[in-house]
Amino acid sequence: MDITLSDQQATFQKEVRAFIDARLPTDTRDRLRRGFAATKQDTVTFQRILNERGWAAPHWPKRYGGAELGQVERLILLDEIFRASAPLPQVFNITMLGPVLLQFGTEDQKSFFLPKLLNMDLWFCQGFSEPEAGSDLASLRTRAEREGDFYVVNGQKIWTTSAHHADWIFCLVRTSTEAKKQDGISFLLVDLRQPGITVRPIPSIDGMHHLNEVFFDNVRVPVCNLVGEEGRGWSYARFLLSNERTGIANVGLCRERWNYAVEISNAHQRDGHALAQLPGVRKELAVLDAEIRSLEMTNWRLLLSPDTCAVPQAFASVLKLKGSEVQQRVLALLAKLAGADGLRAASDLPNGSSDWASPLVSRYFFSRASSIYGGASEVQKDILSKTFLS
User: Fold this and answer.
1) Which of the four pLDDT bands, split at 50, 70 and 90, describes residue 325?
2) Extended beta strands in the chain, E state
């Protein structure tokens, strides 16, 4: 199938591109283009810029500050953000918690939290995984016991991305042990700045600090911070993880990194020859170009073809599985182009460093997690086998 935008969609694409080109801070664009991770301030600043235009939450209803865009327009916006090497809207605020509150939250919760999620006045992180409760999330053991108008929370979360930046955490907690394990879980919003909470860093292989352990020691959480009904947290978590399919393949990211690989291979030499002239590099660029194009076509099929409606989860699994693989391969190519020059840790570089190679290797290391987070590749293969082989 060919991808042909309507006149209205093409106009929207031009509008988005012009807005981002005009408003994205130049230093942010340059650092992210070179492979550095977005800082907290990068994300806060650019999300507030998008929020001014009403694009911070493209899939939210307009009455709550969203853009209420269609699937195609949402993908256009996402691809243009990737194309410009801009920070994405904060995923825990916009893609995860926001839709849960819109669907299951009280009006008081919506009026208090949603504007703050949009404008980054509060930064949320996700408290799901625990030791011995990762893929088998229903085995979580963090307890929340009701005492009057409060829950008293005790337990531990792990692999908590950006908890060191966050103001609040949305947590799955066990409020009952009498029902089957999926039915005894509740969805709770917890202020991380209150007593009894300890956040401990987990350094990752790229030398950066993304992940954390979070410990709860008799933390008192108001009952009004319970989302939905007690004991229904498992269904809310499933809704959270499945409600947003647009962009799951990260096609825009793969294409932007491929474009940068072409730029790097033309700009740098090895043994007196431009990297782009090396047969192995040329072959890998060509293969990845075709892979990214195929991924893009599959993504558009999911959005536009009614035939996918019968097995949406399976198609989402195809996109997640293949998208993770292609993303890792593109970033692996960039690390190869960096070669031995990239072995210096990017975390040791001064902010204004001209070193081009180290950030690429650091980002390659971080990319190894892309086939784990958001649903491990093994889980996606299980879904596909059950769908197409049963």
Assistant:
1) very high
2) 124-127, 143-147, 150-157, 168-174, 185-191, 197-202, 211-222, 226-227, 269-270, 273-274
